Amino acid sequence: MFARPLALTLLAAPALIAAAPAGDLAQVQQHLAGVTSMTANFSQEDRNGRVLTGTVSLKRPGKIRFQYQKGVPQLIVADGRSLYFIDYQVKQVNRWPIGNSPLTVLLDPKRDISKYAKLQPSGDPRVIAVEVHDSGHPEYGRITLVFRRDPAGPGGLTLTGWVALDSQNNRTTIRLSGQRFNAPVSDGTFRWNDPRPQGPRNR
After folding, report:
1. Domains of the chain, residue spans
2. CA-CA distance, 101 to 171, in Å (whole number)?
3. Upstream peptide bond of 61 is cis (omega within 30 degrees of 0)
4. Could you tell me the CA-to-CA distances from 182 to 28, 31, 83, 169 in Å, in that order?
5. Which of 3, 24, 126, 191 has the highest Cβ tally under 10 A?
6. CATH second-level architecture of 23-54+102-185?
7. Is the pLDDT of residue 99 over 70?
8. How far apart, in whole angstroms, are the C-alpha atoms of residue 166 and residue 121?
9. 10 Å Cβ neighbour count for 163?
10. pLDDT at residue 136 greater than cutoff 90
């Protein structure tokens, strides 16, 4: 479906022109702290220019599901403990600790991003771009979150997408639309059917 799982290689950041105000990082932290759940439509573009679409559901702490368009037999889901990449076509499941993925910045409400985050100038006062990278673990890759100033969003921001770069410089771009914050999301959303012959029927 794409070169590498989105879990490992998660919108290129805007052109680097003007410097971003220092207070923007605190506003991003405030936004993340104010999000308990999010649902949205997404489009995903891999390094080869292939685009897939679907829906994403997030519930903090630790839960996210990327449901791809009809005909794509793959799923990415985190159940609060682990992040899974499930390929139903080949009946294969890959698993990682949530903390080993750049997605942890979205999933862990206690994470202090000031230790790992750096503002990226956007050239647009309406846009905030923040790169998160743990220099102690380069194998986890890096993620650049892109926000739009929005008085109706948590902390006055709306997450519009991100770009993730893995340790091999494979890049995947995510763009969001139709975002809804802090509406109820059932825990059942993050269950999945195990395609392996001896695997549990449901996780």
Report:
1. 23-54+102-185
2. 14
3. yes
4. 16, 12, 22, 33
5. 24
6. Clam (2.50)
7. yes
8. 21
9. 23
10. no
Helices (H), the chain: 23-33, 104-107
CB 144 within 8 A of CB 21: no
Compute the distance between CA of residue 141 and CA of residue 159 in angstroms, rounded to an integer: 20
The C-alpha R_g of the chain, in whole angstroms, comes to 16
User: Which pair of tokens denotes residue 8?
Assistant: 């490992």
One-letter amino acid at 102 equals: P
For residues 79 and 83, what is the distance between their CA atoms, to the nearest angstrom? 7
- The pLDDT, as a whole number, for residue 109 is 82
Token output for 34: 């104010």
Rounded to two decimals, the pTM is 0.84
User: CB neighbours (10 Å) of residue 175?
Assistant: 18
**Distance (Å) of CA 170 to CA 4, 64, 176, 199:** 8, 22, 20, 31
Neighbour tally for 182: CB within 10 Å: 11
Are the CB atoms for 157 and 27 separated by under 8 Å?
A: yes
